[in-house]
Amino acid sequence: MKSNTQTSRLLQGAFILSAAAIISKLIGTLQKIPLQNLGGDAVFGIYNTVYPLYTMLLTVAMLGLPAAISKFVAEASAGRRDEEGRRILLLSALITGISGLIIGAITYAGAPIIAEWVGNSHVMPALRTSAWGLAVVPVMSAIRGYFQGLHNMVPTAVSQIVEQSVRVTVMIVLLLYLTSQGAGAESIAAGALLGSAGGGAAGLVIMLLYLRRHRRRVKQEAAAEVAVAVESQRVRALDAGHGLGSKQGFMGIKAGTLLAYGIPVMLGALAMPLIGLVDVFTVPRLLSSDGSEVAAMAQFGVYNRGLPLVQIITMIATSLSVVFIPALAEAKYKGDMKLIETRCSLSLRWFWLLGLAASAGLAVLAEPINMALYGDTAGSSTMTWLAFTAVGGTVSIISAALLQGLGYVRAPALHLLAAALLKAALNLLLVPQQGITGAAIAGVAAHSFAAALNVLLLYRQGHLRLRLADALARPALLTAGLALAAAAASWGTGAAATAAGIGGGRTASLAQSLLGVLAGCVVFAVGAVVLRLLSESELRQLPGIGPSLADKFKKLRLFP
Predict the structure, then answer these.
(1) Rounded to whole angstroms, how far apart are CA atoms 317 and 329?
(2) Cα–Cα nearest to 13, from 52, 66, 70
(3) What is the mean pLDDT of residues 166-194?
(4) What confidence tens digit (pLDDT) does each residue in 80-128 have?
């Protein structure tokens, strides 16, 4: 009974954390649209140059300790060593706080040097305002790791949503104020980046309030125990046995253990944004070689218009991919190679289909979507190319999750590193010739390369079957039908709006986009059934969500 209760609590916590992550990421992604609308492409370009740098520095400042805290606090809690868990939190908060302050100070003081590396001096004020966020967010993340180690995901979920909401609110308020004052692009972008510090501070306050309430509850529970004195003596004895009785043992062994676990986690996390960082350090410099730095930032802003939409697609893939890691780990532990092969093949086939469908729809509807969201059609051809990064990105994410579930932890990071090197080389080759469209083409190639390396490793290890009919022929037919339906619905809506005298505006473009997406979704659902791309038995084998989806599809009589 106790095991079932713990499992239920873990699953409930995972659901809460996943839902909060999706909501917070959605808020963070969609806030880029008002940012461009209010600030313009130059502000948008500066923001999208600095923010990836900020997230990279934040990852370094945290040193992977939130994951380490979660692990060691969970072990301490399981052994009823609550005092040890609190000491781990104290030490980790101290380390991350000092690390954040040091990296924040280096970023602030070194902003001119970093701007020189980027190749654009206009990013310097934004770099300096982003440094303030580095001073508060690492400590907040340490406290999140503590509660996750206690299997209490609610504080993390609440703080994530509050952090993103306050960040976006501060950003928009400063955008409205600075634009009304006629500030320059670099000042407006700096104001937008200050929202990260505001959101981080709000999130830290929430975590501190939860921590205070938690400590109060622990004290009340301890006071109610009859044998509290005996228990305290036992804890002190355990602390002495673990080298925690002295300041030297606590500060030495535990700090080293935490860092030994956390730093590899940090290095793995740094692999994820590598391809985006390549753009930061190459595209603005290559664009400014033929013109002014302001014009280069404006072009880089246009280039980034399609990224929020692609990120929504990959965000969904990331959220769903976590289901497969424990499912495959369990299958491998049991030695069920048939189940591993089935789950790998099925999940890859469907994420490939979803990536293709999303990319084709976004590519076909790029112009009306661009007009609806950003007020003009600048860079629509670049957005069309950028849409296809969703295919490689989606497959790369799910294949990396499959590899991690099977124990291949380092391979996905190395594959991303190889893809980043390819992106850098292609940027140097294509951007001088084709501008931002060249950068988008390079992105498609890099993400596809990372995905191909992951899939090839799965195939070579015998965990995957590849059939051309499932992988290419029928998906291509389904994607073509989807694209034609979306294009026809968009064109028909545009023609009707023009005939009514309201064509060409943002409202008409929004209608074109929504009806195009709706038509594409209908064709995708019907086509998947008609082309037998998914059977009821296959859907039921998807871990977690499969059986419930199969029941719903069966009620709708979508299966033969």
Answers:
(1) 19
(2) 70
(3) 91
(4) 677 777 888 888 889 999 999 999 999 999 999 999 998 888 999 999 9
Residues 6+ apart with CB under 8 A from 354: 313, 317, 394
Structure tokens at 472: 């290419």
Give the integer Cα–Cα distance in Å for 198 and 137: 10
Q: What one-character DSSP code corresponds to residue 163?
A: H
Which of the residue ranges 179-193, 231-245, 272-286, 505-519 would you say has the lowest mean pLDDT? 231-245
Q: Map tokens 């390819």 to a residue.
A: 422
Angstrom distances, CA of residue 513 to CA of 30, 37, 148, 362 = 16, 18, 40, 9
Is the CB of residue 383 less than 8 Å from the CB of residue 305?
A: yes
Residue 436's closest CA among 396, 483, 385?
385
Give the residue, 326 or 99, on which the prediction is more confident.
99
Inter-axis angle of helices 82-109 and 111-118, to 10 degrees? 70
278 sits in the region (left: phi over 0; alpha: psi -120 to 50; else beta) called alpha
Give percent helix, percent strand, percent coil of the chain, each to the nearest 5.
85, 0, 15
Q: Are 553 and 536 in contact (CB under 8 A)?
A: yes
Is residue 346 over pLDDT 90?
A: no
356-400 pLDDT, tens per residue?
A: 999 999 999 999 999 998 988 998 999 999 999 999 988 888 888
Cα–Cα distance for residue pair 311/317, rounded to 1 Å: 10
d(CA 322, CA 318): 7
User: What is the average per-residue pLDDT within 401-411?
Assistant: 77
If DSSP codes are grouped into helix, strand and coil, which group holds residue 515?
A: helix
